[in-house]
Each structure stands twice: as structure tokens, then as C-alpha cells.
Amino acid sequence: MIRKLKLFSITLLFPLLSSCYLINQGFNLLKYNISAIPLDEVYNNPNIKKEIKERIKLIYEIREFAINHLGLKKNKTYTRYVELNDRNYLVNVLVASKKDKLEAYKWTFPFFGSFPYKGFYDIEEAKKEEEILKKQGYDTYIRKAGAFSTLGWFDDPIYSYMLNYSTEYLANLIIHEMTHATIFIKDNIQFNEELASFIGDHGAVEFLKYKYGEDSNEYKNSFYIKEDNALFSKYINDFYNELDKNFRDESINIKQKLRNKKLIIDKKLEEFKELQKKFKIRDSYSWFPKLKINNAVIISFITYEKDSSLFDTLHNKLGNDLLKTINFLKYLDKNIKNGHKDYIKKFINDDEKVKKFLEEIETKK
Fold this sequence. Notes:
The protein is mainly alpha-helical. The protein is built from 14 helices and eight strands. It is globular, with a radius of gyration of 21 Å. The two termini are 33 Å apart.
């Protein structure tokens, strides 16, 4: 009943919005939500293959783990299934940046605030907007995304292409998106994406331990994946910092900055060839050098990677207990209006505050 009321309310809202973009995206979102099948119907359908049912049960198990062991929000997300025969991803995400600055173009939406990216179900619609931004002098990048969170406005379903993902990637993806529905700070996408990436990475490892055990290959390989991710994260941060230093150099003009930009990109791509030799998992990030690297590409990655060490330090201060870390971030979301990273930095350097917070958590058990 609640889902139907949400669908009805949003259906009434879309015609009142002047943006064709919102109407088009809303139509697709409604279409997928209306066509979603409850999981009980999937399990009882003899025409659906056993292998498909098993993968769906795995996603549901990840969801239950995220709720019961990590304290993420309980709703009806990932309790329905959508069969998509025509695609292997959900949305095309457009990112743009100034050519001579690492400064993301931002789109503003009613209720949700500003975002440094914009999603399109239709690739042609994404390309049309990309061309407009290119003509305005922006670097652009369109990437494919396998999921996104509607932040509780809708009960996000399981899509059929998800069933082809590895278990580690599935766990990371599901926990990442459920984090957005649990903790979301308006107009602070950088913070939201960094913390969701952190919780997704660590939550996936904990799920693999929970399901397969510490001696399993699944659990052991998850650490190799984390090591590769950490190497890539450092590489992207170094890439970002070198470009940023160049763009901020007031002793040179824009033409020289753009020439330096090309030299830095060429140099960093050469460095990536050496980095690949250090990855533990074969073909990790092998797609990266195939991208047409520009400021928008770097902005896209840094949105998820910039301050991962801050969350690592926080997690360590809270005893490497992910549930406690998530509880702290929930507190932050609810009680702190701005300056969230500054608050974390002060917190982790104040042993008395850390001790008091941990004591309060123990008292509430």
C-alpha cells in the first residue's frame, strides 16, 4: 500500500515539474518499479531457472546481512525482481568538469540538492547533454552504472544483469547503495560517496567472512581486491593532486596549464603500466587506460576515493568494528549540519570523545 501511494504521489508530481529530464527519468523509474516481481513469486515460478533463483537468494542474503549485522536501513529494497533483456547496466552517468580546473559541473534537483553527475536511462539523452557541455568548453565523461539508490523514495529492485556480478562485487554494490538510503547528507555528494564506498568495501569483506568463513578462498581473495583498490585509490589521488597543482599554479597562463595537463596525463598513464604489475588480481583495472582521460574522468573517480584514509582512521579508532563505525556516521548524519569531515577529524583526535561514544553504544545494547 505504501509503495502504491509513493508511485501515485510521484506520478502526480512529475507533470508539475518543468524539466523534461525529470519526467523522462521518472517514467523509466516508474516503469521498472511497476514491472518488479515480489521475490516469493520468483521462487515459486517453475519457469525461472534454479541458477537465477539462487543468485537472487544471495542478493537477499546480502541485504539481510546489511540490515541485521551492519545496522543499515530496513525497507523493501531488493525484495523484488526486474528482468531486463535489453541491457546489462541501469543508467548512463554523465560527469563534466572545466578543462583548466578540477571543478565539477553540478546539477541541482528538487528535494535532493546538488550532484556532480547526472544519470540517464537512455544513452542518446546522455550524449545530447554531453554535446551541450562540450560546446560550452567542458571536459566530459559518460560511464555505465549498475545501480543507484533512490534514497528510500522507491523500493529499489534487483535487476537481472546483477546476477552476473561476482559475489564480492555484488556484496559491495548492495551494501554501498543501502548505505545511501541509510545515511545521506544533502549537497555533500563527495562525503556521501566516500563513506558509502568505505562501508561497501568493508561490508563486502565482512559478508564473505560471514557466509564462507575465514579459511575460504572467497574471503581471502577479498583482501587481494582491497589491496588492489587501495593501490588504485592512491594512484588516482596522486593523479588528481598533480593536475590540481598544475591548475593552481598562478605563475603560468592557461595555455601552459593545458599543455602541462596533457604531459601529466601521458606520464600518469605510463606509470599505470608499472602499477598493473603490482595488482594481486589479474586484469584489475585493465579498462582504465582504455578511457579517454580528462578532468571529468578524474573527477568521477575522486568523488569516491579522495578521503578514504579518513574513514579508515575513524574505523580504527572505533576498534575496527563496522557496526560501531556506521552508528557513528548515523549520529553524524542526524546531529551535525555541516563540516562533517572536520567533525570526524576532531573526534578521532579526542580520545575522551571516542571513549564516551563507545561507552554510550555499549550502554544502549
